[in-house]
Specification:
Blueprint (H helix, E strand, L loop, with lengths): L6 H9 L4 H17 L10 E8 L11 E10 L2 H12 L2 H12 L3 E8 L11 E8 L2 E4 L24 H8 L3 H21 L8 E8 L5 E9 L7 E4 H11 L7 E7 L7 E8 H7 L5 E5 L5 E7 L5 E2 L7 H7 L2 H15 L6
Parallel strand pairs: 2-3, 7-9
Antiparallel strand pairs: 1-2, 1-6, 3-4, 4-5, 6-7, 8-12, 9-10, 10-13, 11-12
């Protein structure tokens, strides 16, 4: 059976690598299913886990982008991991996602880990990687493929002190959900950065994917934010470019979800809001502003988006009808452009 570590053990591990701001950003991802009633609904089957989008630090790195999906459980034997990977390989929704990524020119790697220690922790893991090829997941040997990636000067980031409200919210998460988050970070920081010391070129993570029953795929970004005094939201420009990279080849739309909170110390939930990638392209400001620190510590650039561009996100947005109407990036942009054309006469005299 998979190992579920004590919550304080996982939280202490995450504190070593995640700053307070990064930790707060992850809280929204874990709150989505519970607060919107997705869990135990038919729509839960449509919400698939995201993964890391990584490139080795080489010349023309943009030609070598891979999504690494990390198995959310910690196993006690290699056979347990193998059985779970086989189930994933036979999952129709995951195969639709794999087809989407392959068509977009993104390589697919599935990584999982087990521990043969008598006392389990996220520090002593044995990793096994699987390459997606011809609709199969093929196990690799040892640390391949990552051992073949260039460089040995990668370093894990260092965490900072977390505020009490963030700790409390992590403690309120289901243990299984927290393990999934812990495994994803253990792969990136504990394995790639600490064990293999691999440098990477502009790594990003995709929080989730929506895969409809009809096979339509939409990448999803989930963030917790408060609006500015003007009611705007600042969105990381790099994430919008990453979404476009994933979606253009397949004419797929994407979703950016915001867990809007107030400015009180407790950051109470106001509502869940969303904007599509098509509306971001149509409605964003074109002048960038300085943002916060990125995954590698460097500064990011922020695109400001008017709050009026965001709609309220409810469970109905995962219905087959809504996904069918909004899944096409080009179709959604064309519809928006048609509506805009009707408004142009206002300032033409």
């Amino acid at each position: 059976m998979p190992v579920v570590l004590a919550q304080d053990q996982v939280i202490d591990y995450l504190k070593r690598f995640l700053t307070h701001n990064k930790a707060r950003g992850m809280v929204a991802e874990m709150a989505l299913e519970r607060e919107l009633g997705i869990k135990n609904s038919p729509s839960q089957q449509k919400l698939l886990a995201g993964g890391w989008i990584l490139s080795p630090k080489v010349e023309n790195f943009h030609q070598y982008r891979y999504q690494v999906s990390v198995m959310p459980n910690l196993y006690t034997t290699a056979n347990e991991l193998h059985q779970s990977v086989t189930l994933l390989e036979n999952d129709r929704g995951w195969q639709a996602l794999a087809t989407f990524l392959s068509t977009s020119g993104i390589g697919i790697i599935v990584s999982g880990a087990w521990s043969d220690q008598s006392t389990h922790s996220l520090d002593h893991l044995i990793w096994q990687h699987h390459i997606y090829h011809d609709e199969r997941l093929i196990a690799t040997n040892g640390d391949k493929p990552f051992a073949l990636w260039s460089g040995t000067r990668g370093r894990a980031s260092k965490g900072s002190e977390w505020q009490e409200d963030v700790i409390q919210r992590f403690e309120a998460v289901l243990p299984e959900q927290l393990m999934g988050l812990g495994m994803r970070q253990a792969f990136f920081y504990g394995y790639l950065k600490q064990q293999l010391n691999k440098p990477l070129e502009d790594p990003y993570d995709v929080d989730a994917f929506i895969v409809s029953f009809a096979g339509r795929v939409m990448p999803v970004e989930i963030k917790e934010k408060s609006p500015t005094r003007q009611g705007d939201f600042g969105l990381d420009a790099g994430r919008i470019l990453m979404m476009l990279r994933l979606c253009l080849a397949t004419d797929s739309n994407a979703l950016y979800l915001i867990r809007e909170v107030d400015n009180s110390p407790a950051r109470q939930l106001v509502r869940w809001r969303y904007i599509t990638l098509a509306d971001m392209v149509i409605g964003s400001h074109w002048n960038l502003q300085a943002g916060g620190a990125g995954m590698l510590g460097g500064s990011t650039q922020t695109i400001m988006m008017a709050g009026s561009m965001f709609g309220e996100f409810t469970l109905s947005k995962l219905s087959e009808n809504w996904l069918a109407e909004n899944a096409s990036l080009q179709g959604s942009v064309r519809t928006a452009a048609t509506n805009l054309a009707q408004n142009l006469s206002k300032y033409l005299g």
